[in-house]
Amino acid sequence: MTPRTRIVLALGTAQTLAWASSYYLPAILAAPMARDLGLTTGWVYGAFSLALLVSAALGPAAGRRIDRLGGRDVLVLSNLIFAAGLLALAAAGGPVLLFAGWAVMGVGMAIGLYEAAFSTLAGIYGRDARGAITGITLLAGFASTVGWPLTALLEAELGWRWACVAWALLHLGLGLPLNRFLVPVGTQPAPPAAGPAAPATGRPGLDRSMVLLAFVFSAAWFTSTAMAAHLPRLLESAGASATAAIAAAALVGPAQVAGRLLEFGVLQRFHPLLSARLAAAAHPLGVVALLALGGPAASLFAVVHGAGNGILTIAKGTLPLVIFGAHGYGERQGVLMVPVRFAQAAAPFVFALLMERYGVWSLLLSAGLGVAAVAALLALDSSVATRRA
Predict the structure, then answer these.
(1) pTM of the model
(2) 3-state DSSP helix/strand/coil percent for the chain, to nearest 5?
């Protein structure tokens, strides 16, 4: 096994654990948490939204730390913080500790999810990190596939509190050793000459390209978070039966992995802007099919949406690297993720309100955001991007 393969496997496994025990946790545990604490599920999702906001606030600082000193120790710290947050949730007796536990989880999410892993790889491989970034997203694409059934099993057998404890122990016994002993520290590439995309200070500038990328990623993750929260209901609104809607929604995960395999194989030969443009167009095309054909197109919509979302996850790591280069990559990722986390926090609530009034036609909002994202990506010139990198 080559060192590069070992690093990708270690980071991919650790990322699967991180996503499964944080971002994908409320889908299974929100109801039992709320029931046991005497709260509505809205309180639990509100606490989860707090975690996303904490992650947004701390992301740039975490990126700067990785840029200066490498990502290994930051990822190790994330395992400790995730474990602490999960143990706090397990001990919660009311809303105060519930919100405190999720706030701690937000710190872990700021320093332990894709942005930190991508920045670590940029520090190790520089501009050649695209393949490694794709590799870890291929593995971590199974986070919900692994995490949801495992969390449900733990909750059914031991209760939600012990499920949180079990995930905490996995961070200490699996995630921490993987990040500490199999991931090198990484070195930051030398800073480029001062320019509009990389000022003399080395800090990322908020130029036109940064604004366009921030919009693209915010639109994409608003849509993906809204779909994760409401997709079965949306498909039922389109005319699919409850069983067909759930079966179609289950195709999103495999479709994401298929999209990433497409990026890893065929699309890797092309500029990542092409991949991103095709991926951003996928959701609007799926919406057109679903609105035109109704329930029979439910599976087609889920597959097209999932594949596009899977490729955009990779683009979130590769586009900033290609456009701006590796220097300052970590902080730039943190800055780009600030509006993304706010969009994620708002998406389930906003889409729920729209669905109450418009049903499946709420998808016109997400389709419009997708079209606008394609336009923003078309405004990014690939020749300039290559020259800057």
Answers:
(1) 0.82
(2) 85, 0, 15
